[in-house]
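for the recovery benchmark. tokens below, seq after
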């Protein structure tokens, strides 16, 4: 069965196997098991379809690394990805898998310094990962030459087509040699991709992996609703609840990482912040301490956490909600590896609830709600652990002879219980201190104003001005560099239109468009809240939701309703 396949079975070289080992991958994912041998052996084109987070990058990246010739300083593989973020992720992933090979991997994307990219390309690179627009740009300048191309990869092809990159892609394809292998990876396989494949690929082999869960089934995924100001307290309670907590706490910014790392350290946890401002040495030293279990908590940003390879983490905490579903999947994928159970806990503030719902949907994950344990529960759990530990100790201990003598003296004219209680208090006083925990205010309100961090915009242009939905969306995307999915609920009327966009993007849209309008006549404004077009949640639905919430919120640290599942087991013993 595919479960027992190892990387070595796939025909990869010892060198690559060791790089994979260093990265912490234990065994190949399904798409990797299926694609790697095909790409290593046969001269075929491949279409690979598997969900996000199933390791597609390594599926094509590893064979490319094997086949590309380091002694030929020419571009031998070109990988197109839809966004700058994905281009960077791909190039980092491939870079981290190349091991000792003298291969140069460049990423080229818009919005970054052309000068730097040109310099890197001029020095000679073997693999280029880029967004279609910027790649074309380099092709036109002659800074990118594809005469020696062996692999042309379209990564996240569905998304690239959705984003309207088809012409750019075709333009790039025209400049590739006839004799090359073309690979196309995608989470879905819409007709447009089939058409593209028919036109540009040679009898492609189709590898389709169905229904692989995106995050490990060994990872229990839960969330808690929490106010920003209670997050630290919640975090310490979650840590204390565990016998052994060995995890990564994800924060949005470096400043937040530092703050959370410091506060944890002040409270006596062995935690360290890890972010881009640290030197390579500092970073290495933190990671080594973590690997050696001398450190149990790393507080990191997404960027800093990339390439951290620690395979037996017990916990991932999303202290800040990740920006995008992909980031969620990447974060959560750091636990539940190597056959060990793990738990991913996401903190969600009331304002973030809608975005969280979106993440949940895209990540196709069953994420159930739990409540933060009460101080009493934690103390009880700790008490039980102390007793178990002491009983075990009594069983196995080779006690130093001076202790029984001391015991005799202590028990000489005192009750055993009195003596033992004093000893326990002396040893465990701090650990069992209720006052260590402060109150957590239930996060009751999910903000109505801004349910989801989305803003409804009113646009003083409509059909009469020649607008239609597609045009409006394209225009907004182009002008503010948004993505298609950012612009939602588009409604175009004769005289005006509405769109909904994430608050940050909405601000950009207003800024961009109003800059060209007279001050007193802005083209785009926030929709008035009482406008029926301005909201998509009715009062009744919101209230209904709140009632359900009230009813649940006092239940201590248990799943609030829903199915019983494997993930429930973990907490039921408390
Ligand atoms: P996709 O492109 O399918 O969305 P990625 O290639 O970005 O997925 O991989 C998602 C995450 O899984 C990355 O963090 C990657 O390092 C990790 N990963 C990939 N292959 C494996 C593996 N065989 N074992 C463990 N983790 C893996
Ligand atoms: Mg990918």
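predicted aa per position
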């Amino acid at each position: 069965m595919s479960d027992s396949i190892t990387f070595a079975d796939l025909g990869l070289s010892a060198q690559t196997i060791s790089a994979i080992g260093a990265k912490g991958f234990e065994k190949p994912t399904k798409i990797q098991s299926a694609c790697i041998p095909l790409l290593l052996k046969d001269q075929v084109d491949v279409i690979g379809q598997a969900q996000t987070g199933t390791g597609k990058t390594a599926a094509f990246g590893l064979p490319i690394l094997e086949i590309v010739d380091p002694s030929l300083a020419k571009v031998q593989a070109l990988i197109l990805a839809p966004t700058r973020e994905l281009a960077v992720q791909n190039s980092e992933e491939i870079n981290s898998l190349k091991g000792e090979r003298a291969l140069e991997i460049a990423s080229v994307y818009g919005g970054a310094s052309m000068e730097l990219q040109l310099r890197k390309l001029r020095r000679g690179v073997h693999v280029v990962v880029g967004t279609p627009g910027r790649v074309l740009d380099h092709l036109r300048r002659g800074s990118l030459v594809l005469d020696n191309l062996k692999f042309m990869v379209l990564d996240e092809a569905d998304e690239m087509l959705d984003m309207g990159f088809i012409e750019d892609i075709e333009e790039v394809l025209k400049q590739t040699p006839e004799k090359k292998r073309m690979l196309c990876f995608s989470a879905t396989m819409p007709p447009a991709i089939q058409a593209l494949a028919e036109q540009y690929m040679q009898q492609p082999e189709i590898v389709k992996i169905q229904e692989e869960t995106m995050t490990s089934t060994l990872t229990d995924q839960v969330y808690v609703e929490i106010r920003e100001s209670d997050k630290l307290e919640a975090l310490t309670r979650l840590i204390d609840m565990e016998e052994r907590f060995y995890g990564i706490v994800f924060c949005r910014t470096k400043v937040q990482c530092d703050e959370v790392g410091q506060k944890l350290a002040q409270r006596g946890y062995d935690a360290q912040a890890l972010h881009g401002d640290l030197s390579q040495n500092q970073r290495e030293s933190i990671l080594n301490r973590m690997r050696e279990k001398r450190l149990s908590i790393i507080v990191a940003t997404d960027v800093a956490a990339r390439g951290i390879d620690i395979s037996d983490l017990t916990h991932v905490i999303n202290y800040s909600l990740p920006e995008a579903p992909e980031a969620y999947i990447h974060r959560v994928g750091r636990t539940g590896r190597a056959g060990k159970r793990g738990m991913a806990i996401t903190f969600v503030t009331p304002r973030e609830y809608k975005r969280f719902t979106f993440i949940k949907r895209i990540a196709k994950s069953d994420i159930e709600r739990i409540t933060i344990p009460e101080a009493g529960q934690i103390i009880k759990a700790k008490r039980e652990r102390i007793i178990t530990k002491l009983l075990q100790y009594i069983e196995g201990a080779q006690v130093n002879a001076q202790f029984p003598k001391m015991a005799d003296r202590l028990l000489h004219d005192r009750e055993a219980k009195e003596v033992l209680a004093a000893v326990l208090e002396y040893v465990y006083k701090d650990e069992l201190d209720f006052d260590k925990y402060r109150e957590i205010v239930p996060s009751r309100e999910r903000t109505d104003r801004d349910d989801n961090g989305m803003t409804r915009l009113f646009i003083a242009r409509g059909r009469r001005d020649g607008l239609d939905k597609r045009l409006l969306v394209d225009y907004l995307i182009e002008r503010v560099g948004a993505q298609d999915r950012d612009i939602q609920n588009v409604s175009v009327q004769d005289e005006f239109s509405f769109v909904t966009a994430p608050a940050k993007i909405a601000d950009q849209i207003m800024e961009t468009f109003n800059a060209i309008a007279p001050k007193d006549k802005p083209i785009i404004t926030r929709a008035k809240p009482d406008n029926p077009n301005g909201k998509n949640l009715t009062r009744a639905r919101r209230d209904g939701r709140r009632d359900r919430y009230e009813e649940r919120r006092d239940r201590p640290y248990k799943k609030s309703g829903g199915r019983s599942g494997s993930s429930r087991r973990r907490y039921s013993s408390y």
